[in-house]
């Protein structure tokens, strides 16, 4: 499959260097700004239902790869963290 895009091959050292140069020039806020802009564009074109669909696909894929007990483990970790934060506030 030919890469018809301009610039270095994605994942190459040249591409990595280019990304670092952009980060140094514009800062991390730049990535937040363009990410939000891209997300808003997708939401406008495809609608909010698109995010529900890809979230469901991702969840199904994670369940297939990690097993259903994975959700139990991460749920317990989240619950433990919530209790720690709550007890620190008191």
In total, how many beta strands?
A: 0
The shape, in one word, is extended
Structural class comes to mainly alpha
Query: What letter string, H or E per element, gives the SSE order?
Result: HHHH
List keywords for this structure.
mainly alpha, 2 domains
Account of the 3D structure:
- There is one protein chain.
- By secondary structure, the protein is mainly alpha-helical.
- It folds into two domains: 12-46; 49-90.
- The chain contains four helices and no strands.
- The protein has helices spanning 13-26, 28-46, 48-66, 69-89.
- The longest helix is centred in the C-terminal third of the chain and has 21 residues, at 69-89.
- The radius of gyration is 20 Å and the shape is extended.
- The mean pLDDT is 85.
Task: Please describe the topology of this protein.
Layout: H1 13-26, H2 28-46, H3 48-66, H4 69-89
Quick structural gist:
Helix content is 81%, strand content 0%. The chain has 90 residues and is an all-alpha fold.
């Amino acid at each position: 499959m030919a890469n018809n895009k301009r610039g270095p091959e994605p994942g190459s050292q040249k591409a990595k260097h280019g990304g670092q140069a952009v980060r140094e020039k514009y800062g991390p806020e730049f990535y937040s700004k363009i990410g939000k802009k891209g997300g808003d564009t997708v939401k406008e074109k495809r609608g909010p239902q698109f995010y529900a669909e890809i979230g469901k696909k991702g969840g199904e894929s994670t369940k297939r790869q990690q097993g259903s007990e994975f959700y139990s483990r991460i749920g317990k970790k989240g619950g433990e963290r919530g209790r720690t934060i709550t007890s620190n506030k008191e």
